[in-house]
Structures are given as structure tokens and as C-alpha cells.
Amino acid sequence: MNDLVMPELLTQAGTDQGIGREVLRKEDKRLLLGQGKYVGDMRMPDMLEVAFVRSPVAHARLGQIEKPQGVEHLVYTMADMTGVRPIVAASSLPGFKLSAQYPLAQDKVRHVGELVAACIAPDRAQAEDIAASVFVDYQELPVMADMYGTLESDTRVHDDWSENVFAETNIDKRVSATDEAVHSVSRKLRMARQCMAPMEGRAVLCFWDTRVDQLIMYSAAQVPHINRTGLAECLGLDEGQIRVISPDVGGGFGYKGILLPEEICCAWLAIQLKRPIRWLEDRREQLTANANCREHGYDLSVDVTRDGRLAGIRCDAVVDSGAYSSYPFSACLEAAQIGSILPGPYVMDSFVCRTRSAATNKPPILPYRGVARTGVCFALEVMLDIAARELGIEPHVLRAKSLVPASAMPYANITNKLFDSGDYTTCMNKAVEAIDWDGCRARQKERHAANGTDPAQKRLGLGMAVFCEQGAHGTSVYHGWGIPMVPGYEQCTARFTPDGILELRIGVHSHGQGLETSMAQVAHTVLGIDIAKVRVIHGDTGMTPYSTGTWGSRCAVMAGGAVGTACEQLAERVKVMAGVLLDIDASLITLKDGTVGVQDSVKRLPLSEIAHTWYRAPQKLPVGAVDPGGLEVVAGYKMMPDAGTFSYACHTCLVEVDTATGHVAILDYVICEDGGVLLNPMIVEGQIYGGLAQGIGTALYEEMPFDSEGQPLASTLQDYLLPGAGEMPPLKMLHMETPSPNSKYGQKGIGEGGAIAPPAAIINGINDALYELGAELLQCPANPRRVLEAIAAAQGAQA
Fold first, then answer.
1. What pLDDT digit, counting tens, does each position of 262-279 carry?
2. 390 within 8 A of 352, measured Cβ to Cβ
3. What contacts 226, CB < 8 A, 6 or more positions away?
4. Tens of pLDDT along 218-275?
5. What whole-number distance in Å separates Cα of residue 440 and Cα of residue 667?
6. pTM for this structure?
């Protein structure tokens, strides 16, 4: 633990369960024993299952829809859903174009898999049989499946638009003009479209509770409060008539962060039929019909001085946003962020960037783990390595000349990002040292010398990437980006039960982040209570404070701050009650090991006795002596300034490229990261390791290709490749802990970081291995075909 982090607070707890301790996750027992509760585990009397008729074409006007005879009452189209409004995710960015996405297609379909009709039956198989019998007249239209092609097309995804662009942004920042000679490097880079592939697909179960006149929705969602707001808008209900419950959720990564058309359909059916309605997404639906991520294109130039200092960046970026803007994140989220975060952790003289969010006949794009950061890290870091090779210097030497120095913190960069704290250069140097860069370089030279000029060999390459990750963004940031769901104060309700159990009710949702453990650790740090006696309640709009949910690496900072604030207020009330019972001045009282009393005195009371007294023996507490609010508080927390925290990391790797087969093996991998004060280092390492796996998928395996007619070409996990345990490299993980001066405990958001740097680091390693052959890769994933094509292109150029 860093010495700067309130040691008096951390030592006050007196045990090893508080902030900074590697406590085993509380939630793992039920999950490992198969006792978790997912939507797929839920059964209700008279429940009906839904199967959807989905468009087999990417762009068409809808003609006649014929329901099969005898079961017409089991088939519903948009014409049946009178009064239901479309999904509209707006943005306040200038020129943003709205897209109305009806729960079931109306007049037109805009991507393969779009919902056309909902079919119900007692089981899914029967519902699918009915769906297969529905006839739909599709009057096909020209398809725009390429994001660059759609920018030039006269055909419109949305008929009333002037062009197929949701929004365009332009940034021109020139701090100073350099009088040094510069070396310019220009390339076109692409990152493939991906699916997010959580273990559990989307799922929803709805029923109408007549007792409370309320729609109850169980949904595999990571933003239940936002889903409730969207449902209310589309269904014409007030939010009090809707309760959204997210039970155990098998991974989110952003895929479960939106309001689904399927949720609206199931909710409407449950209201109309007064019967429970359930839909479970199967893997084919997830891959071919629903939201994707990551598809970026960059026309990028970097200027570096002859000694390797980064002088400027010029960029024209396009993001394929698909056919619709998904609620609540607008379609411009990825592209708009490129314009603000592309400069990364570097100092430079000028930055000019144009971004466009292209509309195509593909499913909508969502913010995936790392959001736009993975793309910008890939683009810029690959370019910096190319510049270093052309200048004949090592990549880390080039970067060291432009990284924001620790002495400059806090630092406002060229796009006014306020870096709160950190030592980027030391972090990079630690990662370079841990991979044994010089030793690996010597191995590489020896290997390549032995290979001679024969290209059909296994060649070694060194790669690296540095990034910073803005997390826990606040009101000013999201309002400035034009996002319709702007976070404010994060709240926590903390209360003791009559037997002394602490209940924490938080609005964020935990679907793999270990929040049930880390929030209990925060409570332990403040109250000294055993985490086994802390119950964290989340994912239920009927029981928790309103929150914009889990996204943007915000939970540790925002929810952790709210929990800590609520527990501090609760602690003060406990001290006053204990002072009355012990006849001691409350200012002398401390909380430790589940007891309250004077420090180092045997005269202490268990917290359970305080709770028992308040609830069941109030005669011991004279009126006016204690707060009438008792042992329940609601507290809000907002980090100020609310520009976010900036965690950062350096990834280094050693790769082996088989030039005969195109196969890439990762021989060694090092991550040095700084997430400020780590609430639970073990949970942090698990998050980073999981993010690394997803980043390796982006770099080498995962791609959702579409043909020219907008047909998805990977419909099963045999076609869509995911990394498994066998693809994970040996990993060395190093931690730095530079506290954020702005967050409550010095912690920073870090949940997405592991997935950001791997594509850049691995591609840099591949290019380093192939440099002497004249080959270069500028696209993810670097699958064997692309590696061999790059080698062949280099050989052809040399010939």
C-alpha cells in the first residue's frame, strides 16, 4: 500500500479485510457451487417463451406480413403494438441525426436479424416453429455494408437523412509550432468489427404484478435503472410502474448496457396477456443479429522530430456505427471519444482530428470493454513503433521523450484531459525491464542471423504499448459529449439490521467485478465490521438508489466513494449511541473488529448490541440524545473535480511469427499498471487478466465479417474464434499505486484497462518480427491469412 494513502484510516480497522487486502470474493461460493441465479434458471407458472422472426436481409421495405393460419393470435407485429414508441437515443452534439428504432420493424428493415415479429408458445421450440411459418414480403433495397462506401452512397439507411453519418466532429488544437525538422509517418489502419461474446447472452423475463400494479422485469442487464427509464418512455408508463431486477449476470462488457427491442416486446406482451413472458438469447442470435463493437478506421499521420519527440498528430477517423443509435449511448460515442483521447499519455504541439460515425446496414455498435480506447491505442501506438523503426531508435526511447512527466501532474493535455496523477515513464521502464528487452533483442538478432535470408522461419518480435484510461467520468464530461444519460451523485443506502448485519444498497451492478466483496471491504475500513456480516444489494430498481449503472470503469471510485461516505455517516450515529450507553463522550469512541468503544479499552460494545438497542430497546436512548434517523442513512458521492481518474499501464510482449503458416505465438507478456489505491489487488489482477484475454482476441482471433450484402459470416463459435486457456501467454503483472488526489481513497477506475493495450502491443511485436522482410500489418485481427498476405505483399514489392 502506498504510504500516501491515509494510513491512519487503514490501520484503524485493525484487521486484514479492508482496503488494499487480497480478500477472497464473497460471491464466488454460490457461483462455483452452481447456486447462482440467472434469468435462464427462472420458471414461472403459465410462462410463455418468445421466438422472434428476424430479417434475413440487410435492407428492405416491408410488404405484407402473413401470420400462419390457426395461430394468428400467437404472432405479433408492430401494427399490434399500438401506442408503443420507438427507441430514440439522442445526443446534444451539433448535427447529430436521430434514428427511430421500433421494437418490431415498421416499414423498413435496416440490418440482418432486425426484429419483424414476436411469436409466443409454452416452450421455445414451439415458438420457433411458429416463427418459421410467418411469411414476410421483403422488398430489397441497395445494401451499404462498408463504412467508407456508405459515406459516398446516394442510398440512405434512414430515408430522411442528408447523408449516412450520425455525427461528425472536428478538433484542431495547436499549442505551439515546432521549428524542428520533423519526420512524418502516414498509414491507414483498420480494426475489425467484433461481437462481445459474454458467457450468458441477453435474457429477459417479464410479468405484471397485479398486487402492486407494476411491471416486473428480470433482465441480464448492467444498467437496470437506465433500462427502466427507457422502458417507461417506450411503453408510456411512469417509472414507478416498472421494477427492473438484474440477478446474477454472466458477463456484460458493454453488451448488456443498453435497452433492447426484445425487452420492450416482452414487457408489452406481459402487460397485454397478463402472463409471464421470457426470451433467452441463443448464441446464433447474439452473433448474427444483435449489437457489435470495435469497427474503426484511421487515416493517421504522426510527426516526430529527428530525436524522436512526438510533435503532432493528424487523423481522419471513421467508426461503423451500424443502423441505429442504441439507447442510452448514442451512436457517436466511439467516434466522438476518438477526437478527445487519441493523444493518449503524450505531450505534443498540435492535434488535428476529424471523426465520423457512419450509418451502415449492420447491427448497432456498442461501447465494448475499453470503449474507443482500444482503437486509439492500437492506431497511435502502432504508428509510434513504425516511426521508431524508421528513425532507428528503440520504441521505448521514442516514447520516453513525449510521455507526460510525473513532475507535471496534475496535467491538462492538448484536449484538456486532466491527468490526476501518475508516473508514466517509470511504469514503461518497469515493463521494459521486466520483459528483459535487451535480452530479448539479443535473442532476436541471434535467431534471425541463424535464419539467414530464408523467410520461412519462426521470427521473434518485441512489442509494446502505453495508454492511459479515463475512468469514473462525471457530469461535466458526459454532458460535454452529448450523452443522454449523464451521471451525477452516486448514492448508497447503508443500514444496520436489528441483529447488527450491515446492508449496503448500491445502484451499480456487479456482473464479474467483485463488488459484493470490494464494497464490503470499504465498509470494513470505516466501520471495522467483518465482511461476512456485510450484505451488498444491487441490481434492483425497487431496492437501490438510482444510478446510471456499471460502465466506464466507475464503480470502485463512484460506488466505493458512496459506500465510504454512507458508512462514515452511519459510524457517527453509532458513536453517539454508544456514547449514551457507555456514558462516554462520543468523540473518544472508535469502531474496531465489530465493536465500538474507547480505543484500547475493554469497555466496548458489539455493533449488534447497538443495533438491538435502537430497534428493540429504545428506552435506553433518551429522546433528543441521538439522531432520529437511526441506523439507516442515504449518502451521495461525487468526485470533484469530476473529470475522472486516469489509470495507465504499459504492456510489453515477445511474440514468435511462423512465416510459413502465419501463426503468431505470444511467448512472454508483461503488464505494469497503476490503478491508484487498489481496493482488492486480487480482484484487480483478475480483471486485468480477463481484459488481456479479450485484448488478445481483438489482436489475433475475433472478427465479425459481413459480405457485400450485409450478411454476417460468423454465425457460430466455430466461425467466430475466441481465445481460450491455451492461447493465454505466461504473464508477469506489476503494480504501481499512485493515489488519485481526487477520489475518496485514492483509487482509480481500472476495469477496462486490460483489454486496451494488447492489440497494439501484439501487432507491434508482429511488425517488429517482420520488419527485415519489409512486411507490415495495419489491421486487427492479425490472423494467419493477413500475416501471410503481408509477407507476400512485401516479397512482391521487393521483386
1. 999 999 999 999 999 999
2. no
3. 259, 328, 485, 548, 549
4. 999 999 999 999 999 999 999 999 999 999 999 999 999 999 999 999 999 999 999 9
5. 11
6. 0.95
